[in-house]
Specification:
58 residues, mainly alpha, Arc Repressor Mutant, subunit A, Tscrpt_reg_LuxR_C, transcription
Amino acid sequence: MLDLVAAGHDNAAISRRLHLSPKTVRNHVANVLTKVEVPDRSALIVRARAEGLGGGTV
């Protein structure tokens, strides 16, 4: 899921791709934000890309 966020996919696209409800995706992203200790989705993307995630296309 983090790879998809880092690639620039929104929650709706991630939910369709992973066959999860949008609420489940939103909850997972919120949990990742907390665990990685970043304030928002943009910071999460920067951190994930620095770690080599998100190399795919949107």
